[in-house]
What does this fold into?
Amino acid sequence: MTIQVVSGVPSRTPDENAEIEPYDFARPTRLPREQSAELLRGMDTFARSWATELSSKLRTDCHVAVLGVSLHSYDDYIGGLPESAAMILLSMDTVLARGVMQFPLQDALGWAERMFGGAGSGHIPERPFSPIEQALITKVVSGALATMAYSLGAGFPQNMKVDRIEYTPQAAKAAGPTDATIITSLELTVDGSTSLITFALPADALVREGNELSHASEDEPLDLMLAHLAGVPVRVSLQFQPTRVRPEVVLGLAEGDLIRMTHSKNRPLNFAVEGHVMAKAAVGASGSQLACVIVDTQETP
It folds into this structure.
């Protein structure tokens, strides 16, 4: 008889010209699905709140949309940015690396002009912020960080604040070239003008926050486990002390035969839980049912 095994997975002819890239498990290229979904939910909440906040500051309708959340190395992230931009470097307590909030420099100058009472013309030439403009942009970013911390909850790094402002992304050394970085891409529309904003956060910052939360509440999982185990049914039994007999006695057993036990009649029986002796007990009765009375709770080896 011949058995033919048919796979449910469609066969695929290997492409000889395909380039194989080694996968580094220490530097994954994707966020875990649960973490990505949680970040997207939090950033969607942030986008709605921040749009309302910016509308009041810039005196015009603002709309913020989340384009996506991804994981890249810091070098890859910087390589995708323009040659000049407003790079707001953010410090935090948990890691030495810096977070980054990046947006077009010319658009940021227009926002500052609006906060001065102007029309926010899009024809402002690119240049570094003046001290007053820098204070205004810092205030905008600080407000965004506070809103983001509220939207993302306890998983967001605490005490994040503006450290300094750079204008050349390639010169901003916020993290090591190979450091894993979580990038959130946002689209900000101000009075019909659209800006692409990125928020980059060292992956270690989220990992450390998660570890601190787990250590802070390490008693809670233990309580949950004990509460769960308390409701699990187990088998209990009363056991005599074992008695040794020869195989010929066992093989020759017949109805009515007696086996002399080495267990004394005055000695308590072993109270076992799932085969493990936990206490000593004497035989008793509870109404019309056979029962046992625990006489010693000391576990025996």
